[in-house]
Amino acid sequence: MASRWKREEAKRRSELRKGLTSSEIEALDASERAEEEMEKLVRSLHAKLFPEEYDFMFDSHSDSADRKSGKNPTTEEHQRLVSLRRNEMGFQPLASNGMPSNNETTEFVRETLVRDGQATILSLIEKYGLG
pLDDT tens digits, residue range 8-37? Predict the structure, then answer.
């Protein structure tokens, strides 16, 4: 499957570059690299600021079954602390199964990075002791 995706991606990249001059191709390559780096930074900072949105990745089989049935397998104290922090930051609580119901936090990180750079996100990570 991964190789199919890679072939499709290579085909898409090739199509985008048809008819472009070498300097236009270089500019497009640079733009794509910058976009990839930004997305990598967004994912990294998002994972630090909102680690609860990644808890499911470490679920045991029984935790996974709980989430599927709508139950959050994390402790009530953890859920309370996460809800307090998210509320204080102005975000919706996690769904009853402990999963985010939308991508508002990812968009927040992306928009904040574009607007302010990393400083605001890093200060929030420090403020909430998430580093």
Answer: 999 999 999 999 999 999 999 999 999 999
